[in-house]
Design brief:
alpha/beta; globular; about 40% helix; seven-stranded parallel β-sheet; two-stranded antiparallel sheet; about 500 residues
Amino acid sequence: VLAGDRPRGTLYAVYTYLEDYAGCRWWAPDAEYIPKKPTLKLANMNYVYKPPFFYRETFYGSVRASNPFAVKLKCNGHFERIPEELGGHLSIIGWCHTFDQIMPRSKYFASHPEWYSLRDGSRYSSYGQLCLTNREMREEFIKNALERIRKNPSAGVISISQNDNRLYCQCPECTAAANKLGNQTDLMLDFVNEVARAVKKEFPKFKIVTLAYTYTTDPPVTVKPDENVIISLCTVSCNFAQPLNSDANSKFHSQINGWNKITNQLFIWDYTTNFTTLQIPHPNYYMMLNNIKFFSKSGAIGIFSQGDIGNRETDFQMLRAWVVSKLQWNPNLDANKLVDEYLRGYYGAAGPYMKQILDTYIGAANRENVYLGCYMAGNPYFKAADYIKAFGLFDKAHAAETDPSIRERIKTQRRSLELSLYLNSSAVEDQVVASGLIAHVDIDKWSRDYYDWATSTHNDYFKEGGKLTFSKFMSLGLASMNTPKSEKTPRACAGLADDDWVELQEDIATL
């Protein structure tokens, strides 16, 4: 008997049996291992399991693109798009940053500017926040929120959350209220609780999720979230090269402990990619996994690991999606063993070399003691020796495996490293070229090849919300700028007319 709670439990029971007892593996939407067993012997087993996280989402393009794959990974989040015949998925009305969704400036600002943030003596007509102490605004907000729920009562959760900026209202009333209650988080929760109570009267089982984000990450001083309010604590300002429960992230550690004291409805919004340069190595591979265990021990009931939704496979995305989903389902699994298993399964004989490549990336970040945020331009902490070592390992990985499809997977990861190199300094590039492991390239030709590959394989998001574009000067989305040129013409531009090349210095060029 394989059975489970509705709507997905029985399906999960089947996949658990096929994986844990029959040896099946689903590495990617288009890569799986199904063993050939003429006789399937059933062990004498009695296995019962309940996952600690009711909400599990990896937010990787490879998972979102395939409904069956998302189910096999036991993901059930808002963006998974799993149809009802496969058990459906959890849905959050509005998802996040809903202040402007529920109280759109385009509708209300002209007639009610006092409902919006006061900053520097003026009401903020652009994408700011709300004036949370305004009584008329609160009444209209509650009316609009209830209307949204009535249109989708089966969702079960609605987001009542601040916009994506720090422009909270500084009017005398809001400032006084925040000071009296304790801090900006107290004022936010006072508002969210009022909305939650109104929702509870009409929809007793409905949940409200709100963000603990930017200026509201600190726990409140006097106001506690109501029982139907879920707190979504964000890790946005953390150092992802170090554990989130370490001294390097003492502020976040203090915050999660503080929230745990006042709520048992803690949701974690974790950041697992580099939103500024999505496609290059972001060496948090093991830290992001260990953090899931920490979240579980901290009592979190849901987890959203915000990965790279725009691309399909750059920066070991398949590995990330598979291992993260495994740990979201069962945080007690051994992360190191999971990584090793995946690399062997997905990269075949090249697996050990791919593991060494990961270790090389991580070693560079650790050696330089880099503060690994989720908004970083390039890999400036990668030195020539790191590139030389990694490219040498890629050559060994390619030689170890003869399967054309696996070789293509290896080449994809090598492209990420090449992109990192060409975004690094010319001095580093020259040293790597001198090693003989990578030839000097025509950057325009390489960029065109990279662009063509990226757009044909769904790996064309260079940064959060920004696709690769091709221009005369660069294929990597860089706009031409009237910046002064060095006295010495770079080798790559030798012989070109002056108006056929531009020089972009890293301290003034924004990717």
